[in-house]
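Next up, a specimen:

>
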Amino acid sequence: MVDIGCGAGMDSFLAAKFAGESGRVVGVDMTPDMLGKARAAAEAANIGNIEFKEALAEELPVPDSWADVVISNGVVNLCPDKPRVFAELLRILKPTGRLQIADILVDKPVPEEAKSEIDLWTG
């Protein structure tokens, strides 16, 4: 499994549980601080089937056709080159792989006051 934009690793940790001892999870994020938190949490929880890598979603450090599952939660909307992101997702997925994306979609302009209130976007 690969978690694109893993942040502090919460979805990666859930994926690691589903993957089981024989499975592997790679969490990818562009933010060193968040990766540090993810690595520390994985070590504290003794989660051994997970690793975290620093990269952009447009340039994933994962071999071709490696992943059975790719997940991304709230990240694709932040990527400037979405076609490149989707090309990368398809590149790393096995031919029978599954892709799960959860993201924010708006169909009208977002008020400036809502944009500036980070808690509205991050929960």
